[in-house]
Amino acid sequence: MTRTNHRRHTLRTLACLAALAAGGASAQAWPARPISLVVPFPAGGTTDVLARALGQELGKSLGQPVVVENKPGAGATLGADYVAKSKPDGYTLLMGAVHHTIATSVYRKLPYDFQKDFAPVSTVALVPNVLVVNPQVPARTVQELLALAREQPGKLTYGSNGNGTGQHLIGAQFEGMGGVRLLHVPYKGSGPLTTDLLGGQISMSFDTVTPVLPHIKAGKLRALAVTTAKRSVALPDVPTLDESGLKGFDMGTWFGVLAPAATPREVVTRLNTELVRIIHTPEFRRRMDEIGADPIGNTPQQMAAQIQGDTERFARLVKDAKVAIE
What we know:
The protein has 326 residues and is of the alpha/beta class. 45% of the residues lie in helices and 17% in strands. It has a six-stranded mixed sheet, sandwiched between helices. The longest helix has 27 residues, at 3-29. The chain is globular and about 65 Å long.
């Protein structure tokens, strides 16, 4: 090798080493600025409450603020689409939920693929849904409500967080198993939904426990049943729908953090480590008990398997319930 060629080879080698070092330093520097945690619902709902509780602790762990951004609309799909198309650098995350596995089958055309366009980080918590009615509705049990619905087909209304969300599908499942016909009223989130439920503009909802729990305790809403197989720790005296005659009814709502698909693996790993540690602290678990949530904290692989399983399960339910949105 000539001296000139040797010099060129040495320069190329040094350049490669410098690039590798810069890449390593860049990865180690994350996060160097605030992180955005996108909530695809308005403020006040379970997704928002969980995101703010988690974001506060995550910001302390990472040494950078975690800013919650509410981007509601289209059954939580607008916020998801925003994150899917964001730069995969670990600075834009999604507070996702079971709703996104349902939307895959409900919406005929989605601008993203929930399984391909996201990197799961960790499932944060599972929250039971609860069937609540406005006190003006003269029903104190599920069977009384079903009898009332049969007398007035299509007259009783139930609200949801939007078309294609968990609440929507739970309502459709309730109609099918109960042999009744209700009128579905979609909202952009739990905040406006709960306001109308309290005001009597709608008859009932199948929302998560968190936003309605204070109103149940205050006697402003009446809880008839929870939708999961087990009773809620927050509402131990409220029976399940299975106990109330709808055998086999078992649907709840999980929430978790996801990043855009091409986010560096080391960033996803760091996020998972910090999230799982936070989720299992006594302080966070106490906060979850207050809002009726069951903390989880799993691996990206476990969350991915959960998403795949739910997507397949809800595809069958959506088909049976004939729920579809253009």
